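Run log, item B.
One chain of 577 residues. Sequence copied directly from the ordering sheet:
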Amino acid sequence: MQTTSSTAHDTLAQKSADHGIVSGGRLVAKALRNEGVDTVFTLCGGHIIDIYDGCIDEDIRIVDVRHEQTAAHAADGYARQTGKLGCVVTTAGPGCTNAVTGVATAFRSESPILHIGGQSSLTQHKMGSLQDLPHVDMMTPITKFASGVFSTERIADMISMAARECFSGAYGPSYLEIPRDILDAEIPIENARIPKPGHYRGSVKSIGDPGEIEKLADILVNSERPAVLFGQQVWASRSHDACIEFVRALDIPAYMNGAARGMMEQGDPHHFDRTRSDAFKGADVILVVGTPFDFRMGYGKRISAPTLVQIDLDYRTVGKNRDITLGLNGHPGAVLSAVADAATAKDNKSARQARLQWMKHLREIEAKKLEKLMPIFKSDTSPIHPYRLAWEINEFLEDDTIYIGDGGDVVTISAQAVRPRKPGQWMDPGALGSLGVGTGFSMAAKLAHPEKEVVCLYGDGSFGMTAFDMETAQRFGAPYLAVVGNNSAMNQIRFGQIAKYGQNRGDIGNKLGDVEFGKFGEMIGGYGEEVREASQIQPALRRAREAIARTGKCAVVNVWIDPNEYAPGTKAQTMYK
């Protein structure tokens, strides 16, 4: 009887195992499994196939995409959703360069991913081999750690080193390049340095200087009009429960941005979302946790409170771009739990009463601001107002729906209306402003949480960048709902051009074709629908939900929105100020 190639391979692998021989690719897989990696996002290439072979042995799921940008975004999304190390594996040359945007997005968003890249054999170094590029040099500026691996014996050790860097201080990506001859080589397993799980990483839940904890407790206990802003790091470090307990213990109004959105229930008396500017103008103490003073914060220049406190995982971020009153470098949850404990013996009853009145005042302003927005949220204009689309999506979300925004103006607008119901159920491009993140994020979110619904709002520009990997999501049993806010333009940039150069010159380089993307959903075997009237948005979304449940395929609802409506931030061009 003829032996199949699969059987022959399994027999060879068993013989190698019996003789204590291990390949470089198997060492990669063993090290990844030690890091808790259960899924690798990749696009195949000759330089990396031995890694796949190892992943089969270690029961690591291999998700192969159509473009490496999607793979990198998916690794980022998987890290955000699981709190564990995300992993993307690419071949050399264009495999690596295609992933650069995704890695850079993770870098600016402080997301822990490990990018493993292929390279030609060391024996072909500087000879002009296929796809040879200086990958480490290219990746160094957008990672926390970047290195080549120069011996098979060190592969697992180097992976643990790179992974450790991903969680050191503020989280972020690492890059490892493994030449093909290093990866394919087989060595006695006793010669390999394989770190033991749980024995090569220290605790990251530091509270910093205990004396500063006491200072902050004193400041907050005696404050009458405090406000706290929770950012990306709060969710990334899984500090949300500690942060909620902190604001409740001290009666402080809380605001959330980035991935921190959804960490508190809408009905919580300490949760605020429309009065941040009012709170920041009137506060006597502002506490900023896990978010930098970057362009989204006006580089800190808009903050005028007499006392400003910053807590961050990264020492370099504390006090960057503006002076602060007090800075604490440490784990957000650990720091705030320590502050809450220290404050229990310092309660100032009159100050607490003032804080309760302060929250009541802010709540009244919140109600007025929402009332002012409701006419535009419920606008029946045609073309559809983008605010109406955002409102309908918010009304459509369920308790376990993960919402993802991928685009410019439509995502900025959605932040005014969409309120995720639980922690970790908001994802957006982050500080790099990358378009095209939605497909990888959506696929990763569904793979990480198959029991949850995933809804992604795309702009039509961003949808066109990575949408073909919706087929990949279907192939791996991760269907999701794509809603396209279609204005046939790159509208966030278009507004600035029109304002600066006039209508005749303002439409250059930013107008797109009128594409019925609902047909794309049908083309990949899923559901598709076009929506041109506001009253039809909600019924279309529900039909798409039912189709996904019935078929296990993706759905695309293409909503035609008014190209001449813009977000307030776009009109003010705040991203450039």
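Observations after the first pass:
- The two ends are 74 Å apart (CA to CA).
- The longest helix spans residues 349-377.
Flagged for discussion on Thursday.
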